[in-house]
Amino acid sequence: MALMDRSADFSLSSSPQGPRLTLRGDWVAASVEGVDAALADAARGAREGLTLDLNDVGRMDTAGAYAILRATGEGFDLARVDARPETLRLLQLVQEARSLKLTKAPRARGLHELTVRVGKGVVDMAVEATDTMVFLGHLLVVVARAAANPRRIRFPALVSLMERAGFDAIPIVATTAFFIGAVVGLLGANMLQQFGAQVYAVELIGIAVLREFNIIITAVLLAGRSASAFAAEIGAMKMQQEIDAMQVLGVDPYEALVLPRFAALLLTIPLLTFVATLAGLFGGLVVVWTVLDLSPTFFFQRIVDNVGANHFWVALSKAPVMAAVIAGIGCRQGLEVGGDVESLGRRVTAAVVHAIFAIIMIDAAFALIYMELDI
Predict the structure, then answer these.
(1) How far apart, in Å, are the Cα atoms of 365 and each of 222, 260, 287, 341, 360?
(2) Burial of 109 per CB tally in 10 Å (0-12, 13-18, 19+)
(3) How many helices (H) and strands (E) in the chain?
(4) 190: how many CB neighbours lie within 10 A of its CB?
């Protein structure tokens, strides 16, 4: 049995009401090429009182409807079309789309543009603050739920994240802290030699490393290393709709993704701070030993006598706050990723920038608080 030919075709006939175009076949993009020009010529010669008969038309898409309307001309009255309701509806939609005129939005300039940009920035800040509060509230609920029922904690994921986000960072943290301690020692030795007080370079190294540089270096490195990784991992899952699938299965993404990362940094950042402290002191020791010819025994004795462990505990008190901020910013930016790669790149960049900015602000706030408390 041969297949019926459904290619687009038409015929022009006369009727008491005037010229009548009868269309047959499938008027779709694949079959109207070549026929649309002939249809336009036929309709142009019989435009006065022209009626259309589309009852024999099979399939029709927007390309076929556009070819018919273009042939009949602008302003053609669809009341003169005899067709099925769905065909008339498609012709009406295409005709409305053809009648739309594209308008170019005026470009704001000068003070008006500046005002608009400032206003948008203020609104964006308010939206970000609201979203941050929502994220924090949800995270606190998940933490309280896990504290009430520790079996909800995913310990395999927690241990894996502690290794990747914490222990794997020990080499880079130790190396960076070593050179920071060496630089502080070198600057202190050169400056204090002018006053004959080079021996106080030991105290300078001890206070700088024990109180500030150990936690700052650790937090900044984790902001660049872990916050970006958290945002990228969760953002990639968001792009592939894995988080939506988790919610459909009844799994809370905060409990499965955010809480293990939050706990991993909370547990590992004190260890990294301790490693950074040892590396920074060792870097300062090397400089003092080689430049000022002060023995390691003398160095550690002055650290114990004149600096003490109080500065280290001050630095360690900042560690939980730094960990919470780094993990929270990284995970929140990951959850805000849209469905495109550009959104992922923006959010990963924002995670690093926001985390480093927050670290500096928090450290300044701690410095002011401890100064008022005389600690």
Answers:
(1) 20, 27, 31, 36, 9
(2) exposed
(3) 15, 4
(4) 12
Sign of CA dihedral 323, 325, 329, 331: positive
Burial class (CB in 10 A: 0-12, 13-18, 19+), 235: buried
Residue 245 sits in the same domain as residue 340: yes
Last residue of a domain, one of 51, 81, 98: 98
Is 86 in the same domain as 141?
A: no
Total of domains in the chain = 2
The predicted structure's pLDDT at residue 92: 86
Residue 353, pLDDT > 80, answer yes
Closest CA to 70 of 89, 97, 48: 97
Cβ(205)–Cβ(284) under 8 Å? yes
Q: What is the pLDDT of residue 3?
A: 43
* CATH of residue 90: 3.30.750.24
Question: Domain containing 18: what range?
Answer: 9-98
Residue 69 lies in a domain: yes
User: Which residue type occupies 182?
Assistant: A
Is the separation of the CB atoms in 223 and 352 below 8 Å? Answer: yes
Write down the mean pLDDT value for the chain. Answer: 85
Contact between 261 and 327 (Cβ < 8 Å): yes
